[in-house]
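Q: Could you fold this chain for me?
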Amino acid sequence: MDMHTYHIQSYCIIRERSIHMDGVTVLKTEALTTLNDFLKSAYRQLGIDYPKFYKMDALCKAVFIAVELMARKAGPIKPDTALIFSNYSSSHLSDEKHAMDLFSADNPMASPATFVYTLPNIAMGEISIRHKLHSENVFFIFDSYLPEFLVPYNDSVLDNQKTENIISGWAEVGEQGCDLFLYLIGKSGKTPHTVAYLKTLYHNEHE
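A: Sure. Below is the predicted structure, expressed as structure tokens.
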């Protein structure tokens, strides 16, 4: 089996109320804007026609926007592109809302619209539907962004030659806000897919 060097072809960071695409700020709003309003504003400004977006939870909306931007920058997402995501709080926001609906003192009931998003991998399902993907996907839960695990994992998937591209990274959307860092990996490009470089990209945007 041939071993290759892989590269980051495009990346998107959504942190609090700003979106950065390949290091360039594409949208920023006031800190007081709610996360949901911010994501809907981004959707409208991108001119996307996908009405189901409004039914998604915040995790799905953030992931949807990031992948949409990468597709516009790097070209259409290939059908065999693998999705390898991670976060800390899983689908906590939807889980909590679902629990509150179930145990409401006034009108306890389960909402199918909320329940459908009580798994974090639903975000990958939404992306697969949007971009017509038929590929491997997995959603890991870590205490923090962990490129030390993701880089060798991603490289091994690409080395198996079942796909030429992966969208991977960190998609934390919880009570503390949004901290998303997703990137498209492939054989071509100038940005190395390494632990050190990913740490630099991720932490520089925190400063």
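A (continued): The chain has seven helices and eight strands.
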